[in-house]
Amino acid sequence: MTAPLPGRRYTEHMAVPAVAVTTAPLSLEAVIDVVSAGGSASGAVASFSGLVRDHNQGRTVTFLEYEAYVPLAVKGMERIVSEAGETWPGVRLALHHRIGRLDPGEASIVIAAAGAHRADTFSACRYAIERVKQIVPIWKREHFEGGDVWLEGATADPEDEAARAQALRVSCA
Prior knowledge:
This protein is α+β, with helices and mostly antiparallel strands and 173 residues long. It has a single domain (15-171), classed as Aldehyde Oxidoreductase, domain 3. It is built from 4 helices and 11 strands; from the N terminus they run βββαβββαβββαββα. Strands 5, 6, 8, 10 and 11 form a 5-stranded antiparallel sheet that branches. Strands 3-7-9-4 form a 4-stranded mixed sheet, with helices on both faces. The longest helix has 18 residues, at 70-87.
């Protein structure tokens, strides 16, 4: 095996990236492993799994379809990791988002953060999901009994400091 790359956790067969957009089922354990690599110094690990709901706005959800412009989505997620690192030095962050068809109960996003202190670790994890919703170009089509609808995706400019400040306020509340 070649020298390890930063932000990747190696398994016997492959490297798990800190950021991914994929059609494969997501593994919360994999993102926890990424941020915990060499983690004897970590005092805290926080994680988040976003699951497909079986209901929304009074309707029974049958499934969701996620679409993304993958290169730009990955770039946005890498930006979030960088922003979190600037805001909470020493916190390691990993996030994976799934695209394609997902049934109720399946994970659409998994996030893990590890750091020396729980407050920073929780905040970085919460910040990541807030910023994904703001700036990552992933769109969701909800299928329900009797129809389907596209739900609004990311709308903020990644350079919009007011949007970033709002994500910080929410994540540190």
